[in-house]
Description:
By secondary structure, the chain is α/β, with parallel strands linked by helices. The chain has helices at residues 12-30, 53-64, 84-94, 105-114, 129-143, 159-171, 187-196, 208-211, 232-238, 246-251, 272-275, 282-300; strands spanning 42-47, 68-72, 97-101, 119-123, 150-154, 174-178, 202-205, 217-220, 257-260.
Amino acid sequence: MRHLLTLFDLSTEEILDIFACALDLKKALAAGVREPILRGRVMAMLFDKPSLRTRVSFESAMTHLGGACQYLGKDVGWGDREAVQDFSRVLSEFVDLIACRTGAHERIEQLAEYSTVPVINGLTASAHPCQALADLFTLSEIHGDFPGQKLAYIGDGNNVARSLAVACAKLGVHFTIASPSGYGLDDSFVQQLRDEIPAAQVDMFDDPLRAVVDATAVYTDVWASMGQESEKEERKRVFANFQVDGTLMRAAPDKAVFLHCLPAHRGDEVTDEVIDSAQSVVIQQAGNRMHVQKAIVAWILR
């Protein structure tokens, strides 16, 4: 049995296998084929945080594969009404796998420690592996093979940035990040990345223009994530020079595409000119969440 809590849990070969499966499933769906390979299987969706893409993409994925989902909100009492170890073991008796979307990463680690079924990280404060896999799958559709590609991330060194850095390192993609001082990737994460993936190409800047040179993709995310609402105004001031606008996109090569994990705060981290441009592939990127998560579920359940 395997869990997917961060992308450090997957090898390069496993990621490529998931991508190959995702491509096959995407082509099949386009042809009207929805083979019920997971007939009778049940996924519990344990969500502490609100969601559009994660919830609907997982539910649709399981339905297409012949399985079913059960949405579990805060009312189930995870770690509140019932001890984590009891909750996790009992839930494992009812379902075949668990997709979890929560805050502190320690919560999903505790869930997985006692679970007897696979746990998939749908988002924590530290990692967003399903998002990053969908992002790199999207790049492969657009630009082909990964060697020679460069992803420039502009903004906060958050869960999305960390997962992207690992995904890029695993696949041989050059990853650059431009962040204000004190808001980039933390030192302990960068050290772990270099220790576990010595070939990782990671460069950090405080100037977005330097980060996008030779980029095949320019990526950004909101400046204040869920749970950081009290910091919103301060972050808006700090990140003011890290907006992805037309000037920044023109500093990247013409072939560069624009990526955003959504939801976007238009006028803050990205302008309408960019997110609505021909370079923007944010809808294709969002759609690929479902295809990649289908493949993850099929892979993790073997």
